[in-house]
Amino acid sequence: MRGFEVSVEPRYIPAESDPAAPRYVFAYTITIANRGTEAAQLVNRYWLITNGDGNQQEVRGPGVVGEQPLIEPGKAFRYTSACVLETAVGSMQGHYEFRGADGESFEVPINTFSLAVPGAVH
């Protein structure tokens, strides 16, 4: 992991959601902090998205929000993205693939976090 920490702040976006459709939109803000001693570049992402019915979708691709940031020691990269579910609850988890200054690739896990319409989970 080389000293990288990932924190997530998910939130429901009612203005873009339509429960009758059903369409539930969730935004999530990710902060990736480099607590290590070497810079590394985020090159790929992997997400496993699970809705409330247990249906899963995998998302893979280069970088995040169109960027492949180089994160220096003591610095952080923050971005916001979104996910659309057909259920009022779900979860996401995954990992980022980084490339270190030494050319070695390594993964940083993104722990499972919940997506839920307020009041949907008791």
Account of the 3D structure:
This protein is an all-beta fold and 122 residues long. It has one domain (4-113): ApaG domain (Immunoglobulin-like, Sandwich). 0% of the residues lie in helices and 61% in strands. Strands 3, 4, 5, 7 and 8 form a five-stranded antiparallel beta sheet that branches. A three-stranded antiparallel beta sheet has the order 1-2-6, with no helix packed on it.
Write the layout of secondary structure elements.
Blueprint (H helix, E strand, L loop, with lengths): L3 E9 L11 E11 L5 E12 L4 E7 L7 E2 L4 E10 L3 E12 L4 E12 L6
Identify the notable features of this structure and list them briefly.
mainly beta, 8 strands, five-stranded antiparallel β-sheet, Immunoglobulin-like, elongated, about 120 residues, single chain
Secondary-structure-based class equals: mainly beta
Note the main sheet.
5 strands, antiparallel
Enter the CATH topology name: Immunoglobulin-like
Strand content: over 45%
User: How far apart lie the N and C ends?
Assistant: 34 Å
* Poorly predicted segments: none
The CATH class: Mainly Beta
Number of separate domains: 1
Radius of gyration (CA) equals 16 Å
Mean pLDDT: 96
